[in-house]
Amino acid sequence: MAIKVLKPGLSSSIQDGGREGYYHLGIPPSGTLDRVGLTVANLLAGNEPETAALECTLMGPELLFEQDTVFAVSGAPMGIQLDGQPVPLNTCLLAQKGQQLKITGSSFGARSYLAIAGGLDVPLVLGSRSTYSLGSLGGYQGRRLQAGDTLPVTANCGQGPVGHHLPEEFKPEFHKNAELRVVPGMYIHRLTSASIDSFFSDEWRISSESDRTGYRFLDGRPLNFIERTPPFGAGSDPSNIVDACYPIGSIQIPAGRTPIVLHRDAVSGGGYMTLGTVVSSDLDTLGQLPPGAKVKFTQVTLEEALAIRRTFQKKLQQLVTALSS
Prior knowledge:
Pfam families: CT_A_B
Domain Carboxyltransferase: 24-316
Strand content: 25-35%
GO molecular function, one term: ATP binding
Keywords: ATP-binding, Hydrolase, Nucleotide-binding
Protein name: Biotin-dependent carboxylase uncharacterized domain protein
């Protein structure tokens, strides 16, 4: 049993909750860039919240169902058509054998999630089905979808809670601008105080050169570093340090020109200083921002970041409880 890919979309890949536990070996977690979007799609389709689904970026795929299939699409409000007819987002639907699904673009948000009842039946790799394209790991042959691919599904793909939908009070909001909260890091002292102030006061624009590895930001003022003699082993770039670890969400500033927020496919360490780390819940917000979106960075303490995480996890659990019932 399978789903045939007629058109792959701009950047579609299989993702689940992520491949945790191997970052110290240089293997990033990958996984969904929007935990709420993946959770909603899966629960509507009758799956566990972190089941492998299709993450569609900016422009979704066109698919042919080779058997009756129960599915749900959540996340960014992209257009969904079944045999050319519009069908609702955030609703469990039944596609009959031979029908075609088309997921188009969206004016708000960047990623939607297509969950199939029973999940996408690709192999587990290090405990996850998520795609890590740079390492050709997981997902469908370790890469983004291509025309002609056949996505394997489980034998119970035609069984699910058809008609189940997301209650209005849980529907997420999507915006073209956002605030990203940042915990300052151990290397922020490398910047001048004026540059620290300007980083947090300027408005930054997301570059088109952004993906699952990292988001690049433009239009803010150049950031200046305190002069120093580079330590042995560091390069001449003023942002260079002797190698250090990178948490997911770390903010690099190569040459002080274009900040880069590392995301779920990022490397685990390197020789650029990082001025801080975006809090985990705001990384989900970032994953739904398209190129051109405007962002302000806001400084928070570690204690505040932990409280933000607890609030996010509580809301996510409330969502799981509501849809599971």
